[in-house]
UniProtKB/TrEMBL annotation:
SMART domains, A to Z: CactinC_cactus, ZnF_U1
GO CC field: catalytic step 2 spliceosome; U2 snRNP; U2-type prespliceosome
Family (UniProt): Belongs to the SF3A2 family.
Chain coiled-coil ranges: none
GO molecular function, one term: zinc ion binding
Keyword line: Metal-binding, mRNA processing, mRNA splicing, Nucleus, Spliceosome, Zinc, Zinc-finger
UniProt domain Matrin-type: residue ranges: 54-84
Compartments where found: Nucleus
Name of the molecule in the record: Matrin-type domain-containing protein
A GO biological process held by the record: spliceosomal complex assembly
Chief localization: nucleus
Record has Lipoprotein as a keyword: no
């Protein structure tokens, strides 16, 4: 067979590489280049999710292995987003911090020395009409910062880093108020009834007590939630 007239090939060279082989070689070269210039543990945009895949928080992409992620960091999309983010931070950094907070309506985060956890009391409750189960939380904040109101947030098991491995059967309710440490209550991973009168919070500024009531949806509501044509539950009277 005549090898002399084949485009881009020399005798004994094995022929021209295919497109897939070229891409694989390019990704491997980019991975080696990234390994020499960066460490994954120090990358603020690198994140390993609960299924073992790697995510880029900057570009919102998912990668099956570290090599794919490292090759992505050397690509045009990631580099373009890095340049845009750097330009945005440089533009915002030129403004005075006080002016930035007033103009944009944002609150400047302060370094506050934590003084410990608040006292709390938990009561199990059941709605007498709907038979819904729930909890009533009472937290004491005698040294709370003036003008600050406690805030709550629900977090699933895969967002926290305290209990490893995460248990999908549980979720957490977080309560934050400066200068106290944020406390979390571990509850069942059931859907919370967020309708008016079911999930409510109230802060007694005189006694410095924070009250939170939460109720889980009934098993029927959880099972048929979002089913087309199903009549919604009647409001409590």
């Amino acid at each position: 067979m005549d090898y002399q007239n084949r485009a881009g090939s020399k005798f004994g060279g094995g022929g021209v590489a295919s497109a897939s082989a070229t891409n694989a070689d390019r990704r491997e070269r980019l991975r080696k280049l990234a390994l020499e210039s960066m460490e994954l543990d120090k990358d603020p945009f690198w994140f390993k999710n609960h299924v073992g895949a790697y995510e880029c928080r900057l570009c919102l992409t998912v990668h099956q292995n570290d090599g794919s992620y490292l090759a992505h960091t050397q690509g045009r999309k990631h580099q373009t987003n890095l340049a845009r983010r750097a330009a945005k931070e440089q533009k915002e950094g030129k403004q005075d911090a006080n002016t930035l907070g007033v103009n944009m309506g944002t609150q400047i985060r302060r370094n506050v020395v934590k003084i410990g956890r608040p006292g709390y009391k938990i009561t199990k409750i059941r709605d007498p009409l709907t038979r819904q189960l729930g909890f009533l939380y009472q937290l004491q904040y005698p040294e709370i910062t003036p003008g600050v109101k406690p805030r709550i947030r629900f977090m699933n098991a895969f967002e926290q880093r305290v209990e490893e491995p995460p248990d999908k059967n549980f979720q957490y309710m977080l309560v934050a108020a400066e200068p106290y440490e944020t406390c979390a209550f571990k509850i069942q991973a059931r859907e919370i009834d967020r309708r008016e009168g079911r999930l409510w919070e109230w802060f007694d500024e005189d006694n410095k007590e924070f009250w939170v009531q939460m109720l889980f949806k009934t098993e029927r509501e959880e099972r048929y939630s979002g089913v087309p044509g199903l009549a919604p539950s009647l409001p409590r009277r």
